[in-house]
What we know:
The chain is an alpha+beta fold. The chain has 5 domains: 121 residues, Tetratricopeptide repeat domain (Serine Threonine Protein Phosphatase 5, Tetratricopeptide repeat), CATH 1.25.40; 277 residues, 6 Propeller (Neuraminidase), CATH 2.120.10.30; 79 residues, Immunoglobulin-like, CATH 2.60.40; 88 residues, Carboxypeptidase-like, regulatory domain (Immunoglobulin-like); 117 residues, CATH 3.30.1330.60. The chain has 10 helices and 44 strands. The strands form 12 sheets. Strands 14, 15, 16, 17 and 18 form a 5-stranded antiparallel beta sheet that branches. Strands 19, 20, 21, 22 and 23 form a 5-stranded antiparallel beta sheet that branches. Helix 1 runs parallel beside helix 3 and helix 5 packs antiparallel against helix 6. It is globular, with a radius of gyration of 33 Å. Pfam families: CarboxypepD_reg, OmpA, PD40.
Amino acid sequence: MNRxxxxxxxxxxxxxxxxxQAQSARLRAANKQFDNLSYVSAVRAYEEFLRTxxxxxxxETRDAxxxxxxxxxxxxxxxxxxxxxxxxxxxxxxxxxxxxLYYAQSLAQNGKYRESQKMYSQYxxxxxxxxxxxRFTVSYMDMSxxxxxxxxxxxxxxxxxxxxxxFSPMYYKNGLVFVSARxxxxxxxxxxxxxxxxxxxxxxxxxxxxLRVPGADLNRSPNSAVLGGGSENKVQGTDxxxxxxxxxxxxxxxxxxxxxxHEGPMTFTRDQNFIVFTRNNSSKGKSGKSSDGVKxxxxxxxxxxxxxxxxIQDLPFNSNEYSVGHPAFSFxxxxxxxxxxxxxxxxxxxxxxxxxxxxxxxTPVNMGKEINTEGNEMFPFAAEGDNLYFSSDGxxxxxxLDVFVAELKDGIAYKGVQNAGAPINSEKDDxxxxxxxxxxxxxFSSNRKKGISDDDIYSFRRTCKxxxxxxxxxxxxxxxENADVRILRNGVNQELRITNTNGRTDLCVDSNTEYEFRxxxxxxxxxxxxxxxxxxxxKPVLNVSIYLERSENTVVKGVVKTEVNQQPATxxxxxLRNDKDKSEQTVTTGxxxxxxxxxxxxxxxxxxxxxxxxxxxxxxYSKTKRKGQLVTDSLGLYGVGDVFQLKNxxxxxxxxxxxxDAARExxxxxxxxxxxxxxxxxxxxxxxxxxxxxxxxxxSENRARAAMDYLVSRGIAAxxxxxxxxxxxxxxxxxxxxxNCSEGEHQxxxxxxxxxxxxx
Length: 760
C-alpha cells in the first residue's frame, strides 16, 4: 500500500512539474512578444496563460495582467483594457499609480465618466505632481461645456475610408493627401507586428468636391496612434456607417515617398512644392534602430520637380534615440510645428516649434506648459491667423485624444487652450484636424463607433449661429441706418459693420466667447452692449439691441496703418487722452486697424498708438469746431526692420554729392528723426551695374556717407545713423552686367534707402 501511495505521489509531482513548466513557458513566450512590441500575439499569449493557470502565483498573475492591460491600450481595445484594469484594482492594493490612470482613461473612452472621475481622483491622490488627476476629476463634474456648440456642426464619414486605418488628412491642391494602412500592392501583404495590419503609406484624392456625402450626419461623437515605438497605427475596429456609402478610389500619392516601412502625417508649404513627412527611421531602404532596439520616427523633406518628389532629406534635428513626427507648417511658412518625445519634455509627446527660413532650419523649441501636459500632445495644425490646433489626452476632454485650439500671440498660448467640443470630439480618439481660418469647415480623423473600420476621416461643416445687432434712436425707437457697429471679441477690436435701412447688421458668433458691440453714429453718444456665448441658447437666431441717445459729444475714429506699406496694423494699443480733464480711453486694434472713441466736446486731446517694435505715434488735436462732430484720422507706425526708398534721391553717374532734389527728400527723413528722437536708421546706398564691383561698393559707400553727413549737418546725432554701401548687389530692375538698359533705367538703381534699426 505504501508503495502505491508513493508511486501516485511521484506521478502527481511529475505532472505538476510538467504543468508548471508549461505555464512558465507560456509566460516567457508572452513576455517575449510584449518586449518585441507584438501586442496582438502578446494578448493571445497572456490570455492563454491567465486562463490555464489553475495554481496562480500572485506576483506572476499581477505582472501578466498589467502587461495585458497595456497591450489592450496599445491596440485601442478600450473595453478589454477596462476589464483587465478593473480586475487588477479589485484584487490588488499595491499597484503603481499609472494603473489607476490607465483605468480612468479606459473608462472615459467607454463613456463611463462618473466611474472615470473616481479613478482620476484616486490617481491624483497617489500622484500629486501630475495635474491630470485633479483637472479631470473637476472636469467630469460638469460635462455640459463640451457640448455647448454641438448643434452647430454637421459631421460626415468620407467615402475614401477603407477597412484599414485612414487618418491625418492634409490639404493639397484641390484634394486631400492622407495616411492609410490599406494595401493595394497585390497578393503579397506585409504586416506590422504591433497590430498585424499593413504598413502605412500616403494616399491622395484629387477632388474634395467628390467627397461630399449627401445626407451624411454623424453628430453623435468620438483614437489614434501614439508617436513612438515606430508606429502610429491602430487595430480596434468600428462599425460601418448607416449611410453605407461606396468606397471612392484613392491613389498612391508618391511611389518615391512611400517605402516598405511606415509613412505618416505630412505638411506642405503654401506653394505646395515642398513637403515634410513622417517616416520610420530608415536609410537607403534599411531600417534603423535606437540603442533600446526600437525604430524611431523621423521627419524628411522632399521637393516637387516636374511633378515628381525628389531630393529626399532627413531634417537636421532628427535622432536615432527619440522620435520626431507630425509636422505642420505655419500659414506664412516661417516656422514648423512638430511632435517629439525627446528628453526634457513635459510628458509622453510634446509639441515643438522650429524656425524655417529660406530652406534653413533653426533650433527646435518646446511650446511650453500651456500647450504641453504630462500626457501626449500630437497632430498639430496651424490655420490661417493665429490658431494652433492639436490633439491631446492630457488636457481635459471627452476621452482619448481630443482636438484643442490655442490662440497664439508671439508664439505663446496667452489664453490657454480650448477644447473644440462635441461632435468634433468624442469619447474615442479625435485627431488630425484641419480647417479654414474661421473653423467653418474642414476634416479630421477619429475611431468613433460609426466609422467604417479603425480610424476614419470625417468632414465637418459648422452652421451659422446668427446674431442680429439692432441699433435704434433711444427716444423715437427709430432704426438707425448707416450706424457703425464695432465688434470686440474677448476685449479686442474685430471688424466694423454698418447697419442697413432697418438698423440691423448680423454675424455668426463663436462659442465660448465674450463679445462687446459698440454702436457709433454722428450726432449720437456711443453706446455698447455685451453678449456672451459661454452658455448657448437653443434658438437658431438671436437678437441684441443698442439704443443711442442724441448727444453733442465728438466721435473720434480712425485707422492705424504701417508706414512701410500702408496696411492696417493689428494689435496696436490706441489711447485717447482728454487733455482738459486728463481722462483716458484705450482700445486694441483688430485686423482692420480701426479705432473709435466718444469724447466730450470742446477739449483738446491726444491720441497715442503703441505696439512692440514700433515707434510710438502721438498726434495732438485742438478743440473740435462744432458739437456732435465726427472726426476721422489715420495714424502711421514706423517699425524695426522697415525699409523705405527715398524715391527722389538719385545721383549723377559716378558722383556722390547731394543734389537739390535729394536734399528735399533728406529733409523729410530729418523730420521723421526729430519726431522720433530715439529712432536709429541705416542709410543704404546702391549703384547701377556699370563699372567694377569694387568701384561700385566704394562709390555707394561714399553716397551713403554723403547722405549721413547731410543729416548730421542739420542737427541729427551721428550715433543715430549708420551709412552702408551695397554697390550693385541689389539691382531692382534686371539691369545687370551685359544687359542693355536706358539711362533712366540705370538711374533707378542709383538710389538711397533708409532702414529702421531701432525705435523706442
